[in-house]
Amino acid sequence: MMGKVLVAGAAAAGYVLGSRAGRARYEQIVSTARKVRRDPRVKEATHVARGVAQDAAIQAEKKLAEAVDVAREKAPEVQEKLADAAKKTLGHGDGSGAHG
């Protein structure tokens, strides 16, 4: 993903600068972008970023699964409390008759 972003950015910059400076300058920019993309440091940074993103995605997935479990566990309790609150609001279930 990071590589695609770099390529897209380089392409956009190349287009803008190339259209102003001519074909030779455009080719120079494209060549430089390719060199940057092939640089071992850039490849390593991309690899590290990919790993960090994957780890973050795994952690987010775990947290989401935990949240779903808690929601499923609490749903009956919440449903009961809402039903009780509705009964009280409508005047049913508290022995006082209808409000109004």
Uncertain spans, ≥5 residues at pLDDT below 50?
none
Helical amount: over 70%
Rg over CA atoms: 30 Å
How far is the first residue's CA from the last residue's CA? 62 Å
Overall shape? elongated
Secondary-structure-derived class: mainly alpha
Number of helices: 3
Q: Give me the count of strands.
A: 0
The overall average pLDDT, rounded, is 84
Structure keywords:
87% helix, 100 residues, 0% strand, mainly alpha
Describe the structure.
There is one protein chain. It contains 3 helices and no strands. The protein is mainly alpha-helical and 100 residues long. Helix 1 runs antiparallel to helix 2. The longest helix has 51 residues, at 40-90. The protein is elongated. It comes from Antricoccus suffuscus.
Question: What's the SSE blueprint?
Answer:
Layout: H1 2-21, H2 23-38, H3 40-90
Helix pairs in contact: 1-2
Describe the structure concisely for a colleague.
Helix 1 (2-21) packs antiparallel against helix 2 (23-38). The protein has 100 residues and is mainly α.
